[in-house]
Amino acid sequence: MPELSLTSAPAHLRHGSNIGQPLTRRDGILKVKGQATYAADNHPAGMLFAVMAVSSIARGRVTSLDVDAAKRHPGVVDVMTPDRRPQLAIDPEIKTNPFVFRIEVLQSDEVRYANQPIAVVIAVTLEAATEGAALLAPRYETLSARVGLDAGDSFVPPVVGVGNPAENHRGDVEAGLASAEKRIEATYETPPQYHNAMEPHAIVAVWDGDSLSIDMPTQGLMLSVARIAELFGIAPDKIRIRSPFLGGGFGSKGLMAGPPVLGIMAAKLVGKPVKLVLRREQMYGPVGHRAPTRQRLRMGTDGEGRLTALDHHARTVSSTFDDFYEPAADASHTLYASPAIRTSHDAVRVDTGTPLFMRAPGEATGSIALESAIDEMAWACGIDPLAFRLKNYAEVEPITGKPFSSKALRACYEQGAARFGWARRSLQPRQMRDDAGLLVGWGIGTATFPALMFQAEARAAIRRDGSGAMEIGAHDMGQGAWTALAQIAADGLGLDIDRVAFKAGTSDLPDAGIAGGSAHTATAGAAIHSAGAAVIAKLADLATNDERSPLFGAGNAGVIARDGRLFRRDDESRGESYAEILARAGLAEVEARGTGAPNPAAMEEYAMHAHGAVFAEVKVDPELGQIRVTRMVGAFAAGRIVNPHLVKSQLFGGMIWGMSFALHEEAITDRRSGRIMNANLGEYHIPVNADVPPLDVITVEEHDPHVNALGIKGVGEIGITGSAGAVANAVWHATGVRVRRFPIKIEELLT
Amino acid sequence: MKPFDYVRPATVAEAVAAAAQPGATYLAAGTNLLDLMKGGVSRPDLLVDVTHLKGLDRIEPLADGGLRIGALVRNADLAHDEDFARSYPAVAEALLSGASAQLRNAATVGGNLLQRTRCAYFYDTASRCNKREAGSGCDARDGENRTHAVLGWSESCIATHPSDFCVPLVALDAIVEIEGRKGRREIALDGLHRLPADTPERDSALEPGDLIVAVRLPPAARGFAAHARYLKVRERTSYAFAVVSAAAALQIENGRIKEARLALGGVAAKPWRARGAEDVLKGAAPDAAVFQQAAQRALTEAKPSGDNAFKIELARRIVARALTLAAAGTPARMPALPASPFASTSGAIHA
Q1: Reported ipTM exceeds the 0.95 cut
Q2: Does position A556 have pLDDT exceeding 80, yes or no?
Q3: Which residues of B touch A687 (CB under 8 A)?
Q4: CA distances from A746 to A454, A623, B197, B240 (A)
């Protein structure tokens, strides 16, 4: 791949800072011209194509594969099976750390879910490999599949999500319910969902001796390097991954899944570069998904409509061979003040690939149930659902009692409601109609997502020509990291963005941490910020200790960096350019590293979350049950907004996904075979453009001095929360029918 | 993929001869066939590409007042032909409610008629399907079948025909012109698609080698232009097949329905002409009561084939609504969201 050359930004309005500018994405022109090189666009010389054969049963054993038939097919070079594959350095069943999940890399003939890889055919063309895989004609010993939320005995998982307790208590829920004036109890179901990133998982792997070069989309370069190193028994510094662009990840490209490992094994087996790209239907199994849930909520209120108890129980599923539990009930920890809260989970094991992180794991599933239940509670009290939410506004984090590091949710409610015109809403459902006689409903949902931080490192340099460089192995999943992080880098270096060479997206750069948990801009941004400060400090040392410099002796007063110059803080008429300082010092460049990490003391003291309020309008045909979302307004407070343009797009995407959650998305699983019957983009419905209404996003001003040095909370996932519930609540308000199984279907509204 | 031969015949006769061989199949735009081949559902030995045949891409008004549509006319070109849309508005509306803009730009008239069912068990080669493999069984019957047939199904197959285009066409008595080994013949579109009975593997009345060369609308079809609508309930606004749809076309004279045409989509293995309901409507005043009566009549023989009882009630309501819309008059302009219950929604982005 040629050195990535980003187009320079057009002449945007500048107000002295790069952060806060609505720059269009700097890689946009490359992308629209088809010049952005995604992993599968790479074709090293001599490359072969690998295609996975996947199991058609959900549980059992492969008893035979017609390897000879596959090998006889013209163009087929080799067939990788459990009997013929490179040895791995460690058993892939061993979980070496909590972020390692079990993968299927032909370690046995066991089948543990449908679409599990059972062989890999390597050929000179994609077509030959594809036909070779079909010719394997596997035979199976089939056991009955365990499917659905009632597939077997339930158990309480040791932890849910990433190390969260399965149960949490505060106060006495039963007493709170017993003393309540009004009570509701309701059970909601959410279906299995699949990430369906536009770009399927793909890898091009090239071995050179024991060195390995990989093109692969990943949300976690260094985690991938570490996992590959241990699986193949090679040193991490022998591995180089290039991941300049991802066509979406949404959590499914965070951790090494089985298929890319198979690509590396295939390359090793045949001793040539190999490309392996998943077919769409092969993404419904080995690369994670959002588990289904059944959630029971119980709530009570006093005579004033204040919650006395909130009980949220979630049933979910995991695979039969590994543990990931969608922490759906945890959504009730942070939003509504209640003297008694209990959240709990149980689970059953089913014959699927292991569910994993999918955009707002836990928060999204939990949010639609919680927001629906809060709406039901408000209705039971005869109170407007926004007024009810304000009445139960949490001034401190309900489950812990900790103060919030910042929380502008009240402003979100106010600004969102004003923009939407919420005050004109009828309290009763099925009261509003449009001119055409369609039912109109308005709904609200509160959005929330934790403000997380991981660990990252960055390297900064100032060069003799006065330009700067910033290097960090950050990941652009489409969210705009190439742009937003470069903005932070430019400010950190005191330079215009066009004077900064920003490098990211490869594993030989400093570790940027994982691009997940909505924490990438905050984490990588903090490292960049600190590296920038460190290199400026070095430059300042050079100047302030050099008596030839106008800044000599300014050490105590301090200097500030701006526009490629250092100035005395107490006398801005005294300063000089970076280039002058380095020239005088005879240096080609100065460099420094910086890190970003969570602040344990602040985390101990404060609850840290982004918040938002989403308002939705739907129209429903009263006889036909067809639903259409006609308007959405989302107001979000997520700390500092690095790039308002990109943030708005992120929030739009989240809101659309929330609408999709409420109305469209569902993996339909055959209850007998455990096979997913709509594993394609034609039948796994997500909204099309014609379904998406005008969307309005308000970013509410919020300053948070505690979350991190830059005050960034992250916006990657919060948009889906709140939105799904707002749409569901609007459907109720339009029709008077409370649908508790998602997605809401036409037949539910044929009253 | 399975290797296959590919020929591009120069004449219809050559095409018919090539396609009559075992393992051969016609290729037009391939919007359905290529997916079937990629999924291993269809594994032909020979593709007979008909897209270069001359003279099959014309829309020709006939002397008798009818219209002949060449089999290779693209769906989008037909829908956007002004004369066509004015004369047969429900057909144009149905076309524009089908698939996506990209698919409509490619898909042909003949291909639309012959598209295969979207039953998930037909597409899933690991499932049993009598249509895909005769006599293998039907996994849809006790499977995930909320969108399956409620009319004309059998124990061996509960699949539906997915076309929108065919629904108003069958209502308007469209005729299919076929070239075969024994020369040219024509059949009513209503006779093209077969109900499954015991042989669901046969979708249509076509014999090996038969090539649809044109679809013809008889002169009478124009007579409904003032009162013709297509209505489609679906799970998203574009790129989704009908849960249930209906085409309704009326001739109203002196406050009475002189002639009525009604057909349903998404309910059976063929576009479902509801002649009994047409009889109910004929001669009646176009009011809500008779539309309800017609709706009841149209679904008299319906029965659920699985978790799809709701489709019967939904179909009744769609019929009543489609008739109401048709009676109100064809809109002067194609709605922004064709065939949608939200067709009149202002400011909608075109589907």
Answers
A1: yes
A2: no
A3: 236
A4: 43, 10, 29, 14
Residue A127 CA from chain centroid, whole number: 33
Q: CA of A342 to nearest chain B CA: how many angstroms apart?
A: 36
Mean pLDDT, chain B cut into blocks of 10 residues (351 residues total): 94 98 98 96 97 97 98 98 97 97 97 98 97 98 98 98 98 98 97 98 97 98 98 97 98 98 98 98 98 98 98 98 98 94 67 54
As a whole number, the mean pLDDT across chain A is 96
Q: Mean pLDDT across the stretch A715-719?
A: 97
Neighbours of B8 (CB within 10 A): 15
pLDDT at B346: 55
- Partners of A461 in the beta sheet? A469, A591
Give the C-alpha separation, A266 to A258, whole Å. 12
List domains and CATH numbers for chain A: 28-35+454-597 (3.30.365.10), 39-144+196-283 (3.30.365.10), 149-195+288-359+369-383 (3.30.365.10)
DSSP A551: T
Q: Note whether residue B126 is domain-resident.
A: no
Q: In this complex, do B144 and A134 lie within 8 Å of one another by their Cβ atoms?
A: no
Residue A218 pLDDT exceeds 90:
yes
Does A746 sit within 8 Å of B2, measured CB to CB?
Answer: no
CATH number, residue B39? 3.30.43.10
pLDDT at A514 over 50: yes
- Residue A257: pLDDT above 70? yes
- Residues A37-93 pLDDT 10s: 999 999 999 999 999 999 999 999 999 999 999 999 999 999 999 999 999 999 999
The whole-angstrom separation of Cα A32 and Cα B5 is 36
Q: Which domain holds residue B262?
A: 224-328
> Which domain CATH number covers B284?
3.30.390.50
Residue B234's alpha-carbon distances to A178, A446, A625, B323, B338, in angstroms, are 45, 29, 10, 18, 12
Q: How many helices (H) and strands (E) does chain B have?
A: 12, 12
Cβ contacts (< 8 Å) between A691 and chain B: which residues? 236-238
Work out the minimum CA distance from A678 to partner chain B, whole angstroms. 7
At A12, the pLDDT band (50, 70, 90 cuts) reads very low
Using CA atoms, how far apart are residues A156 and A171, in angstroms rounded to an integer?
A: 21
Using a CB-CB cut-off of 8 Å, the residues of chain A touching B244 are none
Distance between B351 CA and the closest CA of chain A, angstroms: 5
Task: Give chain B's domain count.
Answer: 2
Best mutation target among B38, B144, B233 (most A Cβ atoms within 10 Å) is B144
Residue with tokens 């106008």: A550
Task: Say if the Cβ atoms of A746 and B314 lie within 8 Å.
Answer: yes
The nearest CA of chain B is from the CA of A98 a distance in Å of: 35
Q: Name chain A contacts of B349, Cβ cutoff 8 Å.
A: 689-690, 692
Selecting from A624, A670, A686 the residue whose C-beta is nearest the C-beta of B317 gives: A624
Establish, for the pair of chains A and B, how many residue pairs have beta carbons separated by less than 8 Å. Answer: 109
Q: Which chain A residues touch B127 with a CB distance below 8 Å?
A: 670, 673, 675
Instruction: Choose among B124, B313, B350: nearest Cβ to A677.
Output: B124
* Cα separations in angstroms, A118 against A61, A65, A209, A679, B221: 10, 9, 27, 18, 56
pLDDT of residue B350: 53
User: Touching check for A556 and chain B: CB below 8 Å?
Assistant: no
Task: Judge: A747–B349 Cβ closer than 8 Å, yes or no.
Answer: no
Q: How far apart are CA B323 and CA B264, in angstroms?
A: 12
